[in-house]
């Protein structure tokens, strides 16, 4: 009877040890930090104020370029490879498209007319090149093969931004709303290695993406990870550097179509200055 009792106790002890060992395996890696970051998943974007058509008495459409190589914009680009919960801006967009939380639209137009599935988007961005390579066993014999180049988010160095400025007479304010964002890559000549032109990849509708941007933090240059700042905050507070490459005009042409070099830069600065002066000239003191 005692032997049976000790056998039962021994089996229970072994079971408890195995369960504790199994539980330790399932706990996952140790926390990479001093606290659990849970607030970011509960953040909701601040809703836009309601607008009536009768209250909008002036609008101006602007297209900008955000160059992520500029110092102020570098947090958009890094890290080149995802690290823990830290991802680059383009990587966040690609993950959102893969999950289906946001929609990509064709690069043929910035009017969000033709939606694309994630697979259709990959087929457009991935490149297949036919090359002739020597055989491993006999280098004198060449064979044809296809090399597939997958899309790398780190190749995106610029973003195009489409936005509307407007004057709301109900609240007596001039505000701006971003409508769309388009990642841009450089097309490189394979023979010379020189840049040929810039290619628009796809457009995303910014109001649809605000929930995604509000749940992803941007690196804070001043306070590090302690100062929470989401990508939605960055865009809404205009905490980025950019230049105007097109403003709404009767010819529907970009600045570089009628100005080049320094003249194009001056024309872009003039467009920004006109927006500032319009707002300041509304009031007299």
Strand content: 25-35%
Number of strands: 10
Q: Measured on Cα atoms, how large is the radius of gyration?
A: 27 Å
How large is the count of helical segments? 7
Structural class: alpha+beta
What oligomerization state is this entry in? single chain
Q: Which outline best applies?
A: globular
pLDDT below 50 for ≥5 consecutive residues: which ranges? Answer: 21-26
Mind explaining what this structure looks like?
The chain has a domain at 55-111 and 154-280. The chain is an alpha+beta fold and 285 residues long. The strands form two sheets. Strands 1, 2, 3, 6, 7, 8, 9 and 10 form an eight-stranded antiparallel β-sheet that branches. The protein is globular and about 85 Å long. Residues 21-26 have low confidence and may be disordered. The longest helix is centred in the first third of the chain and has 25 residues, at 2-26. A hairpin with a 4-residue loop joins strand 6 (158-168) and strand 7 (173-188). The chain has helices at 2-26, 74-77, 89-99, 118-125, 206-214, 231-236, 261-280, and strands spanning 56-67, 104-105, 115-116, 127-134, 142-149, 158-168, 173-188, 195-200, 203-205, 243-247.
